[in-house]
Amino acid sequence: KAGVTQTPRYLIKTRGQQVTLSCSPISGHRSVSWYQQTPGQGLQFLFEYFSETQRNKGNFPGRFSGRQFSNSRSEMNVSTLELGDSALYLCASSFVTGQRAYGYTFGSGTRLTVV
Amino acid sequence: AQSVTQPDIHITVSEGASLELRCNYSYGATPYLFWYVQSPGQGLQLLLKYFSGDTLVQGIKGFEAEFKRSQSSFNLRKPSVHWSDAAEYFCAVRSADGLTFGKGTHLIIQP
């Protein structure tokens, strides 16, 4: 079956702009979580969505937001971009059993560069 | 709060030699542990995971890991490495806040 699809793969934006990244999970997976990867901070949890509801949120400013649609596809948005937002953004798709997520299959990521 | 420590930032191994990557975790409940591998510019590929049952877990590409609760460790092993194993390796624990990752170990393979 198809894996996790993230679009676009690469993005260059200017400071102050906003950006929207997309993630399509594995068919049947209803949980999507997002992670930011930078050389300095490593991999950090952004947020997790399940059945169109945000279940958890990491320690990121309110400029980072997301949503999940009824088909489980998810988008994350970053407003008022800063140079420090340059990172690889990874999406993970999971199946849920008993309210807990399992699996965590990652997409190839979106490389965001802010100039 | 949960945390994952990978003590070795870089490890260099000769091709054909055995490999062990260390991972220690801190988590209050029964841990759900993962090892992922990442090639440059790519996403994370799951090597193996542990949730319960047999403490020796087999994964893809010939990797295995052993969960030791008494040592809070989940070390990754491979009996004979190949040049294609050169990559970044991440250990992670699932918590209420998604996955918490270690800082990673960069594996270099010498010919």
What can you tell me about this protein's structure?
- The complex is a heterodimer of chains A (115) and B (111).
- Chain A is built from no helices and 11 strands.
- Chain A has strands at residues 5-7, 10-13, 19-24, 31-38, 42-50, 53-57, 64-68, 74-78, 87-97, 100-106, 110-114.
- In chain A, strands 2, 4, 5, 6, 9, 10 and 11 form a 7-stranded mixed beta sheet that branches.
- In chain A, strand 4 and strand 5 form a beta hairpin.
- Chain B is mainly β and 111 residues long.
- Chain B contains no helices and 12 strands.
- The mean pLDDT of chain B is 94.
- At the A-B interface, strand 5 and strand 10 of A face strand 10 and strand 11 of B.
List keywords for this structure.
heterodimer; A: 115 residues; mainly beta; seven-stranded mixed sheet; four-stranded antiparallel sheet; globular; B: 111 residues; six-stranded mixed sheet; 12 strands; 0% helix
Strand/helix succession of chain A: EEEEEEEEEEE
- Mean model confidence by pLDDT of chain A: 94
Report, as a whole number of angstroms, the end-to-end distance of chain B. Answer: 41 Å
Helix/strand-derived category of chain B reads mainly beta
Rg of Cα set of chain B = 13 Å
Outline the fold blueprint.
The complex is a heterodimer of chains A (115) and B (111).
Chain A: E1 5-7, E2 10-13, E3 19-24, E4 31-38, E5 42-50, E6 53-57, E7 64-68, E8 74-78, E9 87-97, E10 100-106, E11 110-114
Parallel strand pairs in A: 2-11
Antiparallel strand pairs in A: 1-3, 3-8, 4-5, 4-9, 5-6, 7-8, 9-10, 9-11
Chain B: E1 3-5, E2 10-14, E3 19-21, E4 24-26, E5 33-38, E6 45-50, E7 56-58, E8 64-68, E9 73-78, E10 87-95, E11 98-101, E12 105-110
Parallel strand pairs in B: 2-12
Antiparallel strand pairs in B: 1-4, 3-9, 5-6, 5-10, 7-8, 8-9, 10-11, 10-12
